[in-house]
Design brief:
The protein has nine helices and 26 strands. With 467 residues, the protein is of the alpha+beta class. Strand 2 and strand 3 form a beta hairpin.
Length: 467
């Protein structure tokens, strides 16, 4: 049997777990959609009850507002009156009430830290939490000046982990030729691969992130000079060395790599890192079913990004002046029928299979994108690891509707790289036959296996597909 911890795949905040226990969506009353909420926030109505005033909120004052008809919640030091938002919350009123009258930051991060609450609740802002004065640490000025120093042309490293973890913390160096800048990151990890390295270089700003289990190491600087769009990333997998090679725009000697940004050379938990987005161009849109389309997004030339099996990305759009974010699991451009070799990522595109809902604010906006338009795509997120199925002999997959999307890469991985695998069975539920995604490809795949038990439209109109 497939032995995957329930919290691991899909990820807790991904669409595929909406109805799988834990947080569930609840039916909203008519007139309580996201678009209705956006309209309300722009109506000019006083949603805080303070007539436009911002106040300082004490812990005692916050605790008083702990009822459905009077609910304040603190997120990262800011207090919001979420009473008017209660009926619009997709997770239901009870979920919001868990943080009523308290600091809900941790709960918010556990459920959907990717949501831009500042944009969604900006008209509900009551004010800041009152904080007690904290004595300034000694020698703070000398510490800050030390951070600004450049050591032999290198940028200083920030120490986030304790001294005991120092040996595990990656480090970096850089060197140059007449035409190239090479940043070398020593990850101190064996079996480093392309999926664990994310690099973006935009407008002289270099961001290189190395994933190490549930932590990440970040190199983030404003480069001293301009570079060309073309970028190369070389990975020495066995020794864990990563090279980021940039082409100089002008063949001049750099005195330093650049100025460090706030998170430069930090090694912290990925959950504490925050999401990073880059603009991707829509290059094709293909019909899969009557209401589902396959979108192909092209990454910028100066981005290195491979979405691992079982992980998702977030798409971000500004709709009616409000930032809206949704998670989607990338798929392959098609379902391979031979599975003789692993499908290699071309490094330039991300494919997303998206169901367009007639009343869906976000998917309607996606459907109206024209070829050549841009949309913001985040770094990958998720806890699933290939090692969780690498020793499986029998693999059973359950999917419903677009919950099929995480299965695409998982199927490809299992059938090409899991050597001990004996059988794979996919049970795919849909409302009607016309709703089946990649039906022809799945049926061709099933026919290749003479031992497959059954394929057809069964079980009260739901499709049971075994191979």
């Amino acid at each position: 049997m497939l032995n995957v911890p329930p919290q691991a795949f899909p990820a807790p905040s991904s669409q595929q777990r909406v109805a799988a226990g834990g947080r569930a969506k609840v039916p909203l009353k008519p007139g309580r959609s996201l678009m209705d909420w956006i309209r309300l926030t722009k109506s000019g109505k006083d949603l805080t009850g303070l007539k436009g005033r911002l106040i300082e909120v004490t812990e005692d004052e916050l605790a008083k507002h702990n009822k459905k008809e009077d609910c304040w919640i603190c997120i990262r030091g800011f207090v919001y009156n979420v009473t008017p938002y209660m009926e619009y919350h997709p997770g239901g009123e009870d979920e919001l009430m868990k943080a009523a009258g308290t600091d809900g930051t941790d709960l918010f991060d556990q459920v959907h830290r990717w949501v831009n609450y500042e944009s969604m609740l900006k008209e509900c802002l009551v004010g800041r939490m009152a904080v007690k004065p904290i004595a300034a640490p000694k020698e703070i000025s000398s510490t800050r000046s030390e951070e600004k120093k450049q050591l032999n042309g290198m940028l200083p490293e920030k120490k986030v982990l304790g001294a005991s973890a120092k040996d595990l913390t990656p480090s970096y160096d850089w060197f140059q030729t007449d035409s190239l800048i090479t940043i070398v990151i020593y990850t101190k990890q064996k079996d480093m691969n392309a999926e664990l390295v994310i690099v973006d270089c935009q407008d002289k700003r270099l961001r290189g992130e190395i994933i190490v289990d549930d932590h990440s190491y970040l190199v983030e600087v404003d480069l001293d000079h301009a570079v060309q769009e073309d970028m190369a990333v070389n990975i020495a997998e066995k020794v864990g060395k990563v090279e980021i090679i940039l082409k100089k725009k002008d063949n001049i000697h750099w005195k330093m790599l650049g100025q460090p940004l706030e998170s430069h050379s930090t090694f912290i938990k990925r959950m504490d890192r925050g999401l990073f987005y880059r603009k991707c161009k829509l290059v094709s849109k293909t019909e899969v079913t009557h209401d589902t389309k396959l979108l192909c997004l092209m990454l910028p030339k100066s981005t290195h990004l491979c979405v691992p099996t079982g992980q998702h990305v977030y798409l971000k759009q500004i709709i009616a002046g409000t930032e809206v974010v949704k998670p989607y699991t990338p798929v392959l451009p098609f379902l391979p029928l031979d599975f003789k070799e692993p499908s290699r990522h071309d490094g330039a595109h991300i494919y997303l299979m998206i169901k367009i809902y007639s009343s869906g604010l976000f998917t309607q906006a996606l459907d109206h994108l024209q070829i050549g338009d841009y949309i913001s795509v985040s770094n990958p997120e998720g806890n699933f690891k290939k090692s969780q199925v690498q020793t499986s002999e029998d693999l059973f997959l359950l999917a419903a509707g677009t919950g099929f999307t995480p299965m695409v890469k998982l199927l490809n991985f299992a059938l090409t790289e899991v050597t001990c695998l004996r059988t794979v069975k996919l049970i795919f539920f849909n409302k009607t036959e016309d709703d089946m995604l990649w039906r022809n490809q799945l049926e061709q795949l099933a026919l290749k296996d003479e031992s497959q038990q059954r394929t057809g439209w069964v079980n009260r109109g739901r499709f049971l597909h075994l191979f």
